[in-house]
Structure formats: C-alpha cells, structure tokens
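BUG: 3D viewer hangs when loading the predicted structure for this chain

Environment: internal workstation, default settings.
Expected: structure renders.
Actual: progress bar stalls at 90%.

Input used:
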Amino acid sequence: MDRVPPGSSADPSFGRHHVTVGYLAISLEQAAGPAAIRGGSGASAALRSGAPIYSAAMHILVSNDDGYLAPGLQALAEALRRFGTVTVVAPEQNCSGASNSLTLSRPLTVHKAANGYLYLNGTPTDCVHVALTGLLERLPDLVVSGINNGQNMGDDTIYSGTVAAAMEGYLFGLPSIAFSHVDKGHDHLESAARCAADLVARYVERPLAGPFLLNVNIPNLPYERLGAFRCTRLGKRHQAEPVIRATSPRGETIYWVGSAGEARLAGPGTDFHAVASGAVSVTPLQIDLTHVDQLDGVAGWLTA
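Structure tokens produced before the viewer hung:
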C-alpha cells in the first residue's frame, strides 16, 4: 500500500501520458500523482500503455462535518471530479463531534447552494442517510467524507462526524473513506486533496474486496514531502482535558468541553506514529463493538 516516498526516479514524460476512465481522459499526473508514478506501480504501467483502469465513470458522494462552506470539502470534491460525477451533500453548519447521530425530532430540509452543493439542516450521518435513501436517483460507487480540518485518530473516531459520514455509507454496503488533515488551519490543503485523489485512483485500479471503511489522516506537508500510505491501527489518547467552566451574560454557569487528550499509545503501527513520521495513515475500521475476549467471561458470570 505504498505511495513510495519522494526521491525515487521519475518518468520524465509522465505528464504526456493519458488514460481513459469511462468518459474521462485523465493525465497520469492527475490520476496517480508523482509519488505513485515514481514507484512504477500497475497504475503507472496502465497509464503508459493507455489501457483503461475503470470501465465507467464513477459516481462519488462527498460529505463532511465542517459544513458545506468548508475549504476542505471544496478541495476534496474538486480533486475527485476527474473520476466521474461528484455529488456533494453536506451539513448546513459545522457538526464536529456529531458522531453517528441521526435527527429524529424534526424534519430535514435540503437546499442547493450557488455552486451546486446540496446542504441539509442536519448531521453528517443525516446527509449521507438522506442521500442514499431518497435523494439520489442511483447509489454512488464510493462515499467519501472530508477533508476534515483537524485529525481524527485514535479515540477521535468515536466522536468524529467525518468518520460517521463515511461509516453511514459503509452501513449501506458501499466502499467509504474518511479523510482528515492532521493539523487545523488548511495549510497544504491542495496537497491533501491530491493525496486523497491518489488513494481513490489506487482503488479504481485495484478495488478492495467487499465494502470497506478507511480512516485516512494526511500530514500538513507539501505534496512532494508526503511519505508513503501506511496501513495502521488506531492508537489511544490520554483522558480528555477537564471541561472549562464559565459564566454566561445572564449569570448562568456554562461549560465548554475540554480538548482531547494527548496521544498515549502511539508506537509503531499506530496512526499517531505514522503521521508523526510524515506518512499518510490509512486505518481500516469495523463497526462490530462486541468485546469478543469477554464473551466467555460474561456468559459464565450470567449462568453462575
């Protein structure tokens, strides 16, 4: 799953080769990116030969949790248009920390922005759920979420609206990917969007078997300095910081949720370790919360 770090020899003519993906003509640089091309991968060989790497233009559903006006959403959607049709359905407002919540207490309304994006007065999960169960004329080939303004690693995945949007697609049996930028502030956002397109290009060329849910965290680095894609497991954080107590203008005591804890388990193989070394962390996630190691113990406790 390597992107092959910078420094390998590159084909000096890569920018002149094209491949047809469905109805699209995609340059080699656009489809795979310099780092993947330098590795001499199957994608590179297919592009050089002019062989198609996908039989029809894809339909990609894009959502996020930062809201439909977020720069990361626009960067991701634009980077993925080369693969086919991109439909954006995103929250009207920032929904960071919304996790997998569905809105059941009121109706939801969908509006269309001037740029064609659809936005909904609900959560990231609402957006994907409504899109898949009634809004879209046909199901997408891929569900993508992001690019989040800040990392979603370790325990963050439990609370993340970015991960939840992709997870909703996975629950419907669709391949789904959540993309996050490690540091807040959108530095090198274009680089992150190109990296996201690299991963989608890899999937187009060599699809993973069955539905999958990938959590991807991309360091805020120039594209040429990004390391390889690295398959990782989730690390763990220390306990979150205490809530911040304040007083409202009406004299009421109010509370702000404190910051997430620092990384606690961040050794080799974890998402924290990968991004600290400049690599792009790719963590396959699952939804089954069953604590398998405790099944026998709890069963025995119940029958004792």
